[in-house]
Design brief:
Number of helices: 8
Structural class: alpha/beta
Radius of gyration: 33 Å
CATH superfamily of the largest domain: Periplasmic binding protein-like II
Oligomer: single chain
Order of helices and strands: HHEEEHEEEEEHEHEHEHH
């Protein structure tokens, strides 16, 4: 309405200015009429342009970057959840037939579904600096990331969505029946996994550290050690492929928990925590867990 009013005022002003000093409208020259028509078309174009641009802007915002910092806008893009992951840690995230798949990817996909958004996976290299990569637009990162004491507080973390589990593994013909039978005996562990269990817990055993899983298995088969304590993500395939050789005595939880990473102060964190809680309550989380971590022993 404001633009229309300006238009009318301009037309009137132009007309009065053009015929000032004339006694009759019939005396307006053809040149004046032509100028009047051109000016009118120009002013109409000025009125239409903002309206058309408003429509285009609205359309761009729908799929483009959010400009509204209000509580409704949880993600960078209105219709997508941008998820960063370092696809180098099966079964959490890895490349299979050129596609990134895994436990974390299924968790992120369910979160996107419950947010009513598409999910776009953005490959990254997680360098354990606990900072969001500056060269990528990301809403969150899910990549088997644990909250370490040295995190610098520049990001936020979700509630833990996965607690690392370990299994006591022995030879199938061993007389050992329960994990207590292993107390005081030689137990093989991957070196970097020893920090994931309490030192007082491990003090009951003679821990032999190995950097190579294959070598550790050979030591067990040669009976140079009495058993293994190995994380399920590492041990699952070993157990299923050679279930005639190995036997599981016990499954235990470790102190290592994985969380999703967000920008500091992100409103998305609380919404994701709510969704993770829902997934646990309705059984969806358990279904995803069993798909990637459940192992069978014949």
């Amino acid at each position: 309405m404001y633009s229309i009013t300006i238009f009318i005022v301009l037309i009137k002003t132009y007309c009065y200015g053009t015929i000032a000093g004339k006694q009759d409208l019939m005396n307006i020259t053809k040149k004046t009429i032509k100028r009047f028509i051109v000016t009118t078309i120009f002013l109409i174009a000025l009125l239409i342009y903002p309206i058309s641009m408003t429509g285009c802007s609205s359309e761009d915002d729908e799929s483009g970057i959010n400009q509204n910092d209000g509580p409704v806008e949880l993600t960078i893009l209105r219709n997508k959840l941008l998820v960063g992951t370092d696809a180098s840690y099966p079964p959490f995230e890895f490349i299979q037939d050129t596609e990134i798949v895994g436990f974390d990817i299924d968790i992120a996909s369910e979160i996107a579904f419950r947010l009513d958004k598409e999910m776009e996976i953005v490959p990254i290299e997680w360098d354990f600096s606990y900072e969001m990569p500056e060269d990528e637009k990301l809403d969150m990162i899910i990549s088997a990331i644990s909250i370490e004491e040295n995190s610098n507080g520049s990001v936020d973390f979700s509630e833990p969505y996965y607690i690392m589990e370990f299994v006591f593994l022995v030879l199938s013909d061993a007389e050992l029946q329960i994990k207590e039978d292993l107390k005081g005996k030689k137990i093989g562990m991957i070196s970097h996994e020893t920090k994931d269990l309490p030192a007082e817990y491990l003090s009951d055993y003679m821990i032999e550290e190995y950097k190579d899983v294959i070598l550790m298995l050979e030591e067990l088969r040669n009976r140079n050690i009495d058993g293994l304590l190995i994380s399920i993500p590492v041990g699952k395939n070993i157990i299923e492929e050679d279930n005639a050789i190995y036997r599981v005595l016990k499954i235990i939880e470790s102190e290592k928990a994985f969380s999703i990473v967000f920008h500091k102060g992100s409103l998305l964190k609380d919404e994701v925590n709510r969704i993770l809680s829902e997934m646990n309550e309705d059984g969806t989380y358990q279904e995803i867990y069993e798909k990637w971590f459940l192992f069978s022993i014949e």
